[in-house]
What does this fold into?
Amino acid sequence: MRRKILRQLPLITMIFLILSGLVLSSSCTGKKDKKKKETTVVEEKPHFPGGQNALVSYISQNIRYPEEARSDSASGQVLVSFIITSEGKVTDAKVDQGIHDLLDKEALRVVENMPDWEPAVSNGEPIEVSMQIPITFKLD
It folds into this structure.
């Protein structure tokens, strides 16, 4: 039992750090010209199904600390940005700040496989927004 808890300690630490440092930044992208970004007042930010606790649960249940990264003692925070479309789909995920190739790929994999979100709303209409979340990998 104690070994099981010790093996899960990095995951438990990661969950705590995600909860304490979750950053959801939103800036809207224009629908007409995707290359030109527009800033729009967002009345309602996008929501992960079930809320922030469900997002943390999703990440903790789906993320895997790659063995090679563990062997390399790699740890830190990966910043991943992505778009939530007006339909709630996660698209255009990319690593903005990485720490280790394998950890970057794992954070990106988890974000790309997220379920649909409730989209942001502006003027009563669903809109597309960009988001950024930190995913922290920590070894004890």
